Amino acid sequence: MLSLPPSVQIYVASEPADMRKSFNGLTILVDELLEQDPLSGHLFVFRNRRGDRVKILYWDRSGFCIWYKMLEQGTFHLPAGNDQYVEMSSAELALLLEGIDLAGARRHLRYKLPS
Fold first, then answer.
1. What are phi and psi of 37, to 5 degrees?
2. How far is CA 52 from the centre of its chain?
3. Domain ranges of the chain
4. Is-above-0.70 flag for pTM?
5. How sure is the predictor about 7, in pLDDT bands with cuts at 50, 70 and 90?
6. What distance in Å separates the CA atoms of residue 51 and residue 59, rounded to the nearest whole number?
7. Terminal-to-terminal C-alpha distance of the chain
8. Parallel, antiparallel or unpaired: strands 10-13 and 85-88
9. In a 3-state reduction of DSSP, which class is residue 13?
10. What is the distance, to the nearest Å, from the Cα of residue 24 to the centroid of all Cα atoms in its chain?
11. CB atoms closer than 10 angstroms to residue 50
């Protein structure tokens, strides 16, 4: 399971990205396509057109890091969005990376803040 602080946001790009892109290319996508700050410390998730590869770009206070996963079988079921990106929680990202389709998953209400 991923253990990220609640202040870290996760942005999943809605459109596929060229997986040949590395640090500079993905940083440009974050800045221009997602309109986010690549130095924010948030995670930026990109997938390829076939959906069997995912790259995650993030800044760790001393440089950029890329986490890359390629599936031997099947595809990642990334959430669809109408905007340039979709936000998700670290728990949802962990489930997605394990191969769980979030479209059929239900979240039960555990606590509601008083109004």
1. -90, 115
2. 14
3. 10-104
4. yes
5. confident
6. 24
7. 32
8. antiparallel
9. strand
10. 17
11. 11
